[in-house]
Amino acid sequence: MLLLCQLARPRSRTSWLGPAAILMAAAVVAILGARLAVGTFGAFMAGFAVAAALMLAYQLARPRSLREWIGPLAELVAGIATPVATMALSLRLDAFSAFMLASLALYASFVLAMWGMRRWFLGWLAGLGGLYLLLVVLLFAATAFEMRWHRFMGIVLQEHIRDAAILSFKSSIMTVVLAMIVGIPLGYLLSRRRFWGHTFIDTVLDIPIVLPPLVVGVALLIFFNTVPGRWINDAVIAIQHGINILIARVQKPFTNRPWQFAADGLVFAPEGVVIAQFVVAAAFGIRTLKATFDQIDPRIESVARTLGASRRQAFFRVTLPMAGHGILAAAVMTWARAIGEFGPILIFSGTTPKYTEVLPTAIYLEFQVGQLQSALAVSLMMVLLAMLTLWAFKKLGGRFAM
Amino acid sequence: MIELQNVHARFGDFELRDINLRIADGQYCVLLGPPGSGKTSIIELICGLRPLGGGRILIDGRPVQDLDPADRGVGYVPQDYALFTRKQVFDNIAFGLKVRHVPPGQLKSLVVGAADLLGIGHLLTRTCVGLSGGERQRVALARAMVLSPRVLLLDEPVSALDESTRERVCLELRALHDRLGTTTIHVSHNFEETRAVADIVGVMRDGCLEQAGSVEDIFRRPRNEFVARFVRAGNILHGWALPADGGARLSLAGQVFAIPGGADGAVSAVLRPQDLRVVSADGPGPGKVCLDGVVIGVNDGGGLQVTLRVAVGDSETVSAAVPRLDDEPISYRAGQPIRVAFDPARLHLLEPDAAGNPGEGNRVTPGPPAT
After folding, report:
1. Does B213 score more than 50 pLDDT?
2. Which has the closest alpha carbon to B108: B127, B84, B125?
3. Which residue from B minimizes the CA distance to A310?
């Protein structure tokens, strides 16, 4: 195997490809072999141990200067640390601790090994930065290890969780629609025109982004307690009554008890969730939309106008279709922000189960009553959603404008 | 015909001042100038995309400065072409016809006609994403030309193309113009490109039109030192003139001689390399001015002439273009003493430059000759 390592490696440069492939293969074999003996995670540990040992051998097989001994020494540390982690498992440490110990040991060995290499400095920097990535991975790994997956579906399908999910989806989609209605014009104007007060508006847009979310909730509550705020609240109630009357009219031939809105305005009501989400999420949406319009050459509109289009036609027939992907990306971004919103909703809408409870507040409520598994299940659901969102956002070519 | 009368505009710190330009029907005008000199701004003013500060813009004698861009009858091809990238080539070309509600049958024949004219008939169903630079330019041209504009405005139409296709595209632009006869304004910062296409040239600097005239005028008789340098009209020599009967006496590059025109004080003059001849030591013909110098560089143009860099006088360096037979070996070497001569009548005196000496900057004008 060492011979293979040497053959796969060009003499002058450190090529990791050949050795890495062999290491992988060896690790897989070791995992499969140990699977029967010590269980899944023990098998992983064994795989890591074999990988580290091979790496050590590979390093030793190379002709080297004194400085390059640091790398193999690190491998030695790894070679010791990994079996330690494996033993930790056998000492009835839980699976996650063993996983963490092993990945830390492996990671440290990689970073130290970088020190011994020619490109050591960049590798070393990457190692320091990678600590953050490791943290992120460990966080999700911890949550996933802690979850008892056989209970997952049962928890998620509970009635109040289901209601929270439905309200979360309804309100966040409503928020996206509202945010796009104000965001597309504002993003366009900020991108295209340099008007008096441009910088001021730009700064105002940053306020919801930098403000602590709880403060947004408090401010909302205060605002809807002022006279104009109450007018708005009353207007919403009036609209809800109006819609109810219409619904009753339409449904009368079919049923005696038509489905009705709860005419309860915005404060401490499900409709308020939309407002609470909208305030912060819209700012993110507008930022992304501005970046989208920034990327579209303004001369395209100029040409359209010389070809006979009015400003309005140029906007709707040329710029908007070209911004399509960016607008979708902005919508995804806004939606992700809205569905994760917690602070303002907690204060402005409250946490009444089956009424104003949304997914993030559901996590909070479950923790409050000690239902750790329920909180975990909802959290993992949201992690999954976030991943999907991020994937969609990147796929649509969105860029963070921050 | 398009006419700019005292056009004035201000955008932030940049100002266009008193632009007067008249382009007759069917002429091809190139606006030439360094980047940031206001060429593109003029185009955008004509399109109506920027607010006009003052003055008038007339297209076919009709003032258009208060009209919408749509109603001015201009075809605009911006830099980088600004194609509608999400649409097919056909829809790009048809856009102007569609917003003007041209009936579908007529629309199709017009689009196909314009595409065939530019040789892109086979691209009509493609999207704009995979097109080459030259193809994109043709699509943009077809999109503008399909509306039969009165004036075609091209903003740096070839600078996005690679070096090897530029020359060919310039010839094609000129050929298209010769065929259709649309009055054209073409913005460029490249004087070779200008020579290839232009009937008339306007040279711009810092928001001013320094000189407008035929290609011949601009290259042979540049108005001032800036224009002369920018179009590389030839050697620029600095000297001192004293009025004399029937003309002036000029002290230049260490020689004193009479010139026909009137001049006084510090002057600069253009002398084309072709007008400098290498002469043998026994002297030139009568009336010629001789400059003795040393060859400091030989540039084999690869063709029928050799360009010599010759240091003459105290600090001047001149280029001389020497004719050469096809296979004749070059007999000039750096360091070789040489005598070149020119006819003073060939010297073109430049007007003093309003904004000081541009280009090389801190050149010291020689003082009056000791008498």
Report:
1. yes
2. B125
3. B70
Is residue B143 scored above 90 in pLDDT?
yes
Q: What is the pLDDT of residues B241-282, one digit of tens each?
A: 888 777 788 887 777 888 877 777 788 888 888 888 888 766
pLDDT, mean of each 10-residue run, chain A (402 residues): 43 47 57 56 62 61 56 57 60 67 67 58 71 83 84 87 91 94 94 87 89 91 90 89 85 72 80 92 92 91 92 92 90 91 90 88 90 89 87 71 42
Q: Give residue-wise pLDDT tens across range B103-121.
A: 999 999 999 999 998 889 8
Distance from the Cα of A202 to chain B's closest Cα (Å) equals 20
- According to CATH, where is 2.40.50.140 located in chain B? 234-350
**Helices marked H in A307-371:** 311-314, 320-322, 324-339, 343-348, 359-368
Q: How confident is the model over B314-336, as a mean pLDDT?
A: 79
CA distance A241 to A233: 12
Contact yes or no for B95 and A304 at CB 8 A: yes
Give me the pLDDT at residue B363, please: 44
Record the tokens describing residue B196, joined without a space. 């290839």
What residues does each domain of chain A span? 2-146, 154-224+266-395
Higher local confidence (pLDDT), B286 or A247:
A247
**Interchain contact B76–A (C-beta under 8 A):** yes
Q: Which of A302, A303, A305, A316 to mutate to test the interface with B (most CBs of B within 10 A)?
A: A303
Buried b (16+ CB within 10 A) or exposed e, B24-55: eeebbbbbbbeeebbbbbbbbbbbbbbebeeb
* Interface touch B82/A302, C-beta < 8 Å: yes
> Which residue on chain A is closest to B146 by alpha carbon?
A307
Q: Is the pLDDT of residue B371 over 50?
A: no
- For residue B147, give the nearest of A307, A318, A321 by CB distance: A307
Tell me which DSSP letter residue B351 carries: B
Is there a contact between B147 and A308 if contact means CB atoms under 8 Å apart? Answer: yes
- The CATH 3.40.50.300 portion of chain B extends over 2-225
Is the pLDDT at B305 greater than 60? The verdict is yes
B177 at A interface, C-beta within 8 A: no
pLDDT tens digits along B235-249 = 888 888 888 777 788
- Interface contact A306-B100, CB threshold 8 A: no
For residue A242, CA distances in Å to A252, A266, A288, A399 come to 15, 16, 36, 42
Residues 6+ apart with CB under 8 A from B3: B21, B22, B23, B56, B57, B58, B61
B216 band by pLDDT with thresholds 50, 70 and 90: confident
Give the helix/strand (H/E) hosting B113.
helix B104-117
Q: Give the minimum alpha-carbon distance from B204 to chain A in angstroms, rounded to a whole number.
A: 22
CATH number given to B2-225: 3.40.50.300
A interface test, pick of B86, B111, B148 with most A CB neighbours within 10 Å: B86
Class of domain B234-350: mainly beta
Q: Find the closest chain B residue to A303 by CA distance.
A: B76
- On average, the pLDDT of chain B sits at 85
**Cβ contact A321–B86 (<8 Å):** yes
- Best mutation target among A307, A318, A319 (most B Cβ atoms within 10 Å) is A307
Interface contact B76-A306, CB threshold 8 A: yes
Question: Would you say residue B312 has pLDDT above 60?
Answer: yes
Q: Which two tokens stand for residue A267?
A: 């404060």
A154-224+266-395 belongs to which CATH class?
Answer: mainly alpha
Which of A299, A300, A309 faces B70 most closely, judged by CB atoms?
Answer: A309
Question: Hey, are the CB atoms on B86 and A324 less than 8 Å from each other?
Answer: yes
For helices A159-192 and A359-368, the axis angle rounded to 10 degrees is 140
